[in-house]
Design goal:
Blueprint: E1 2-11, H1 15-25, E2 29-36, E3 41-48, E4 51-58, E5 68-76, H2 79-88, E6 93-99, E7 106-111, E8 117-122, E9 138-145, H3 149-158, E10 163-170, E11 176-183, E12 186-192, E13 202-208, H4 212-221, E14 232-233, E15 240-245, E16 251-255
Bound molecules: fe (ii) ion (FE2).
Residues 7, 9, 54, 71, 73, 119 line the site of fe (ii) ion (FE2).
Domain VOC: 4-123, 138-257
Protein name: VOC domain-containing protein
Keywords: Metal-binding
């Protein structure tokens, strides 16, 4: 059974640069470092508030053409059974259960109905540590493009055990449906428009701070470049948001509304 959303995985070009960005600039803690010898890839878990990002830095940069967010990983206590039942339900298998490249535990990959790569992990340690105090109050959500919203809700609700936390609909011209599903602390946001959208399947991660404008000023002073138009009022009317990018172009949003569970 799947019992938690463990991490969002990202491929990065320069491990040192990414670790510096997430720890020194954003206040994350490194909770695990390992090597995947078969592909000469460094694997570093950084924890931001209560959420984790897995940074994967290949030794050979020509081995990949795409960097940034790559997959969403769930922990299970029975990988063979879950992989079998999820793929039997019609979801596409990508990598059969096997020993993890780091040698620790077993992993498998499959595709969610919108094409997001989903990792299943079975191991004796989730790597998550007690939260460290920083400017990040919580890891608010991981945002996924859900062109087929019904199928996304069926997959995450039926196969991963997540439940709906909140729904928002923003009237035209935005015409945007936002659905939040969670597994305890961990939240996934589905973004859906009537017309199918192109773009990154894992669109961004969102971090909750006390005050977006103050945090944006602090990050700007450390050389972080914000997207044009940031900070701005959130489309939901709840608080302010600002968007910047990590070292490999991964999109990061800061927001200062209440925790979704308290809305
Ligand atoms: Fe992973």
């Amino acid at each position: 059974m799947i019992y938690e959303l463990n991490h969002v995985g990202a491929f990065v070009k320069d491990a040192e640069k990414s670790v510096d960005f997430y720890t020194r600039i954003l206040g994350a803690q490194v909770v695990r470092e390992a090597m995947i010898p078969a592909t000469n890839t460094k694997c570093i878990y950084v924890q931001l508030a209560g959420g984790m990002i897995e940074l994967l830095a290949p030794g050979d940069l020509s081995s990949r053409s795409v960097y940034g967010f790559d997959h969403v990983a769930f922990s299970t206590d029975s990988i063979d059974r879950d992989f079998e039942s999820i793929t039997a339900a019609g979801y596409k298998p990508l990598v059969q259960p096997k020993v993890a490249g780091s040698g620790h535990g077993r992993i498998a990959f499959l595709s969610d109905p919108n094409g997001v790569r989903i990792e299943l992990i079975e191991r004796d340690d989730t790597y998550r540590k007690p939260e460290k105090t920083s400017d990040i109050l919580s890891f608010d959500h991981i945002s996924l493009l859900a062109n087929d919203l019904e199928a996304a809700e069926a997959f995450y609700g039926g196969q991963t055990g997540m439940t709906v936390l909140k729904r928002f609909y923003l009237e035209p011209p935005r015409d945007l449906t936002m659905v939040y599903v969670n597994h305890g602390y961990d939240v996934i946001e589905f973004l859906h428009r009537k017309e199918p959208q192109a773009g990154d399947l894992i669109g961004h991660i969102a971090l909750r701070v006390a005050n977006v404008d103050a945090m944006a000023e602090k990050l700007s002073a450390q050389g972080v470049a914000f997207e044009p138009g940031s900070p701005k009022n959130a489309g939901t009317g709840l608080g302010r948001v600002a968007v910047f990018r990590g070292p490999d172009g991964e999109k990061i949003e800061i927001l200062d509304r209440s925790d979704l569970r308290d809305l």
